[in-house]
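User: We ran a pulldown and think these components assemble together. Before we commit to crystallization trials, I'd like a predicted model of the whole complex to look at. Sequences follow.
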Amino acid sequence: MIVAERKPLNEIVQSLAGRKRVLVLGCGGCVAVCCSGGEKQAELLGEQLKLAAQVACKAASGGEEAARGGTAAPGGKVEITVDCITRQCDREFFANMKHDLKDFDVVLSTACGVGVGYMTALYPEKVILPALNTTFYGANVAPGQWQEFCHGCGDCVLAWTGGVCPIARCSKSLINGACGGTNHGKCEVSKDMDCAWYLIYKRLKELGRLEDLRKMRPARQWSKDRGKGVRRLTHEELMQDTEVQK
Amino acid sequence: MRDGSLTSKQYAELASPADLMQREWAPCRYHCPVHADVRAYIEHAAAGRFGAAIDTIRDNLPFAAICGRICHHPCEANCRREDVDSALAIREVKRFVAELQGAKGSTVRKAAKQDKAKVAIIGAGPAGMAAALDLAKLGYRPTVFEKFPFAGGIPATAIPKYRLPREVIQIDIDWICAHGVELVTGVEIGKDKSIEQLKAEGFSAVLVAAGLAKSRMLPLPGADHPLVRPVLDFLQEISLTEKSAIGQDVLVIGGGNVAVDAARSALRLGAKRVRMMCLEAEAEMPAWEWERTEAREEGIDFINRRGPVEILVKSGKITGVKARKVTRVFDENKRFNPQYDDGDVTTVECDCVVMAIGQMADLGFARGSNVKADARGRVEFSPVTFQTSDPAVFACGEIVTPPGSAVEACASGQRAVKAIDLFLSGRAIRLSDELPPFIGKIAPAVGEKVRQVPRNKVATADAAGRKSSFEPVDFNYVEAAALCEARRCMGCGGGAEVLVDKCAGCLTCLRVCPFGIPKVADVATIDSALCQACGMCAAECPNNAIVSRSKPARDLATRTAAILKDKPGQVIAYICGQHASAEKWKAITEVPEVNEVYVTSTAGISVNDMLSALVNGASSLLVIACHEGADRYPNAVGRIRARVMQAKSLIQEAGLNGERIKLFELA
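Assistant: Here's a predicted model for the assembly, 913 residues in total across the polymer chains.
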């Protein structure tokens, strides 16, 4: 699952740059599961923006009166509307929006970067802004806690690393064992961080498969990572006679 | 049982979110003969909204005050709380609310126009008055004819005042009459006026609700003695005059509730010894257990399994009753079919006998009409259409149903009105019996997680003191006890429902539920029979995919916005329902004016609710939680702490002082 976290409110307000009609659009997929960008969090962001606008309005009027009815922000009144769709990474779901994009100056998306980017491609006439920082591919390791487990490198090595990913979990993404910075099982980057290669060694030892580490392997294809630009996935059997989507 | 899954589209298309409550009823509502929305009125009472509570009660039950005193409360008998600690004292809460509000404190919802046909009702008892009310609400013009000088029927004429004071009955009668029900007392149909005359006077339909007005008697030797009293005559005389001829050593024959009433009344008239004799063994007696207990406390003895053979009379005075042993009361088919041992006959000493073996219909009303009696001497009647042998004459209540309580008579009257309405609109009379299913028993694994709260006892008068007067034998709750008792309600059937299309299967509900109820396969499912309606999952669900059956989505925010619309800049306090006394927390703050918003528990307050209150103009928000362990839901306090902390940091981020949201945990 893609994990993302909310940007600081200040940064979001700055990015809105005085635009007046704002649609906060939640995503019911991964970001809902990690409790950062579902309908509830989109609503919360909406309420925060309204409060920030009220504070700004109060400050502008000498702190005497709170604005009611509409809300205000630096640069004048703003209208905040909240909506949410099932996923922002599939074209069809945008048809389920309860609002018309025409009515808004800007969309503040609480999806991951995929949603923001895809929506920008779908609606080039609109300004789509991110409300989240997309952080990693992770798992929910305990209530309220998510942790990175995969980097999306395109050339998975977990089969011979005992299920522990050196790309995602080693600070240097080393592929040939621990570096000199390993320290009693911890990484030199932070004493709270396990050394991925220590974990790999321990795991393979438990499995009685240390031999796997001695095997010669071909050079890793980093081109499958970010080396060749935008990556695509094609399932020919599912393709239809339509123009390839952007 | 579930009706299937719910989508957000279906939810949005509901006429009212409360329609979800029709998916399954709480057993209290299902088993109530008039299907009063018990969960809803108890929730109002728990919030101190007593006006809303009485209106909700009266939506279904016109005799709210009467039933508050004397109902046999099948709601309580089926209360799911029984499997946690003990059933909710529903009747006592109703009694408190009904008598606190009185007739004037109950909203009168008159029909916009009352210009439909005139309908005559014979008998102003529970069945007749309930029918008259419903007819008036439908726009008909009902007139109730009552032979006694006051309305109320058996509750007014035969139930002793120590159980049901007359002024309590008057609350219901006044409220019903305010709906445009005409009441004519002192007129006996069949004697002063016939059914045919009523028709000639322009009544398009007649409803017979005359009840069982005569006492059954036994043709025993000696039964014609003046001190062999038919029970209804005896009780009615007491009701009208507070006096009745009685001996010093009274034997009441019969084992039902009326017999107990007669026995306890005899004691209050000054009898030295009062005993009850019946065919049944104690456990078989039809009288309610609590009635028997109270009678025994007052010194009344039971002679069980004896059937009277002869009333012994010597020199014009009763000396006793000869009685034989009963070997069985019911046969293999559980039908009343007593058998006796004639070799075992004893004499029970007494100087007065009250015959309380049952009541029967008095068909005097039918004189000069087309209403016929069947071979058994009962009114010829169709239970399907409620019609008698005259299609324009309908019947309801005990005259055509098995003997029951006031609430059952009300239900019968209400159904008869549906039939009359169809008849007078020229349609075929077809009444539906369909009801939603009801929720089953609480699973032990969930029941043991529900916080135990003992039932609030009703204060009763000391047995020695109470048996010498017709003053009430028990007392109404004080407000604190009524609130406390109402707050024991588990709100069955008002729990969570998952909007399957919005559910991302994130497992948050499963992780926050204090009762371990949600299951997540592809999407979450929440078993309504187990859900305790705490609101924890709905408050946390990141996709707003969980809604409450009993409350509209964003109910708290909407209610708060409504308060603030009139008074912006006010302090709002979300107060946990466990707080019987608002004074307690007021003492710790120096806020002059606070708008109290009651919540069943802080478990259901979301961070969004808190921010919304400020957005909508609250100057600050106080969250008043109870101390750990006191909340009706486990972990509620821990959750609200975390949410308040999050809300504070979010408003601070927006430039507000975090202190505008404050949490108080009160012991």
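The first strand of chain A starts at residue 2 and ends at 6. That may be worth checking against your pulldown data before setting up trials.

User: Thanks, that helps.
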